[in-house]
Amino acid sequence: MAHPQANPSVGRFARARLLSTLELRPSGFLFDVRTAESYTVNPTGACLVKALQQGVAPGALWQKLVAAFEVGELEAQRDAIRFLEDLLHLGLLRGSGDDARATAATSPAKQEGTEP
Amino acid sequence: MSSSHDAIRGPSPARRNSGRPLTVAVTGLSVAAALAPGLPVISALRSEPEFAGGRIIGFAYDPLDPPAYDGSLVDACYLFPYPMYGAARLLERIEHVHRQHPLDVIIPTLDSELPGYIEVAPRLRELGIGVVLPPAAAFDLRSKAELPRVAEVTGIKVPRSRAAHSMGMAVTLASELNLPLMVKGNLHGATLIGSLDQLPAAVEHHAAKWGYPVVLQEFVRGTEYDVVALGDRQGRLVGAVPMKKLQLDDRGKAWGGITVDDPELLAAARRAVEKLGWRGPLELELMRDDNTDEPYLIELNPRFPAWLNLAVAAGQNLPWALVKLALGEDVPPFAGYRAGTMQLRRCVDVTCSLGVYESLVTRGEVDLRRPDPSWIEPHFVSTLPSEEAADRDEEPRS
Hints:
The complex is a heterodimer of chains A (116) and B (398).
Chain A: H1 8-11, E1 17-18, E2 22-24, E3 29-32, E4 38-40, H2 43-53, H3 61-68, H4 73-89, E5 93-94, H5 97-106
Antiparallel strand pairs in A: 1-5, 2-3, 3-4
Chain B: E1 23-27, H1 38-46, E2 55-60, E3 76-79, H2 87-100, E4 105-107, H3 114-126, H4 136-141, H5 147-154, E5 161-164, H6 167-174, E6 181-184, E7 190-193, H7 199-210, E8 214-218, E9 222-231, E10 237-248, E11 254-259, H8 263-276, E12 280-289, E13 295-301, H9 309-313, H10 318-326, E14 342-344, H11 354-363, E15 365-367, H12 386-391
Parallel strand pairs in B: 1-2, 1-4, 2-3
Antiparallel strand pairs in B: 3-15, 5-8, 6-7, 6-8, 9-10, 9-12, 10-11, 11-14, 12-13
């Protein structure tokens, strides 16, 4: 079984943190008090959001799924990564590896073309 | 039937024989782009003293439909699938609501949802839910493409028009008509064109929105008058109120109106209801030709219009009459209405509960009589510098 920390897909989320402006309601209503954007998460999504809000490292999220639901480790890892990608796509994560790479690509120091 | 209505008056209609409050569902709650008729229908019912204590259930398509947030308008609100998802989904959702809030009457207010309601009407009656809907054949005639047939059946004049089922057909048919032309979408919208080179863009615009056919209609230069009417279960006229638009929005919809004393317009409404055997609400849009002063029927809408509160203010609460018809009561025709009643529309901002929004987007429904104490609430944000904020421990007055 591949160790999740060795998985390059989750590695890029290692430093990612959920926006502090998000409020999760028992109903699954996720509300950003700064932008007034709102989202709906299902119970598994709510489990992951809560875990992130409690400071659980992105790489360890899959363990929360395994503990709370009847799901195998590999599936839980895939689901956790997919969820993190969704959060990233929606702009609800800060400090992910994608953010870092995007910043580097625009840096004047990288204009020699050593980075894509 | 006794001629003495007082002598046979039973329990107030606002309470059913079981003691349960009379419960009416109303659709079409949108306000944003254009006022849909649902809110005016609800306002009309709430203004009726006999409806006191009655309950209104909103059927909404959007969680941001404003009536869903107002406990003085609706008691509960449910999100519904769009009509394009079919009658089976509609019925499933109605049955869900009915299990939680037993319905006595449903008033659909949007053209696009009527075919679904007509289809499920037999099942609604089995459930004990009253609806008053036109026969399918009459409903089909209200289509813009069928206006010439309406003229044949009712004797009301209509402008020359043609229904085009393709762009090529539109180009050919347009040459048979006199300019200028109104190019009309199947369900909504119209574009005035003064030359044939404007035709393709207009046809494409409406076809893209509502599909074919697109109707080409000779433009009648004149003054528009609208009439709201109500047919009973036997297709007899119960009420009718004509009005002239005073103000228009940028889509040409009435933003203000005044009722008029015009026997010809009333006669047109009577002919439309009786010759078509129309059951339920109806709106006639007529143009009085500037040259001949003759009224031409330019559209027949199979539901209450958004300006309907003008008719209520003029003395005909047609939505309440519709409810009584749907309950199986015999409703005598209104004796008349007050001409010269004027109405102007205004927009107001209403503070809403974010918790209602939360309930609608997560559960698809909300019961305003049972707010959830865990609903999200606004939280206080200090705008003072932090040292001052620390000294102040109360929220400022709003």
